[in-house]
Design a protein that fits this description.
By secondary structure, the protein is of the alpha+beta class. It folds into 2 domains: 47 residues; 101 residues, 3-layer Sandwich (Rieske Iron-sulfur Protein), CATH 2.102.10.10. It is built from 2 helices and 10 strands, in the order αβαβββββββββ. A 6-stranded antiparallel sheet has the order 1-10-9-4-3-2. A hairpin with a 5-residue loop joins strand 3 and strand 4. The protein is elongated, with a radius of gyration of 28 Å.
């Protein structure tokens, strides 16, 4: 057997088992980190923002009621949730989540078309919150509205 000048120790492996294991662990860890960086945004994109907790009922202030009459809608807070309150084409008060189910942008009410519109990616919803067109994957969450603009208007989570 002749001596190999590239491997003076006489072994057949240039990389020892300890070093190989370390390289495999580092390579595997790098792959897992890469996978997490790629998969997390995909999951966040596909899963719409959740309606969070907080207060389950809120009364509209006189200023908010005035905005509904003059500007056709108002966005209020119900706990930590943003809610759009508007009067539809039949004059009925409605309240929906003001957060688009696509990317979480704030929606507006287009009175002339009687629809909810998301300006970020042109998502459109009916006044009941159902998706008409655009990228939103799910309808808007509907809230219960009691009262009228002359008296007290209360917005609450349904079933609360």
């Amino acid at each position: 057997m002749s001596a190999n000048p590239e491997n003076p120790a006489g072994g057949t492996d240039a990389v020892g088992p300890g070093r190989r294991r370390l390289l495999n662990v580092l390579l595997g860890g790098s792959f897992l980190a890469w996978a997490a960086v790629v998969i997390y945004p995909v999951i966040r994109y596909l899963r719409p923002p959740a309606e969070s907790g907080g207060a389950s009922e809120s009364a509209l202030s006189d200023e908010d009621k005035h905005k509904v009459q003059e500007e056709s809608f108002v966005i209020i807070r119900l706990g930590t949730s943003r809610v759009i309150v508007f009067q539809d084409s039949q004059g009925k008060l409605k309240a929906l989540s003001a957060v688009c189910t696509h990317e979480g942008c704030t929606v507006t009410y287009k009175k002339s078309e009687d629809l909810i519109w998301c300006p970020c990616h042109n998502g459109k919803f009916t006044s009941e919150g159902r998706v008409i067109s655009g990228p939103p994957p799910k309808p808007l969450f509907a809230y219960q509205v009691t009262g009228d603009l002359v008296g007290t208007v209360t917005v609450s989570r349904q079933g609360a």
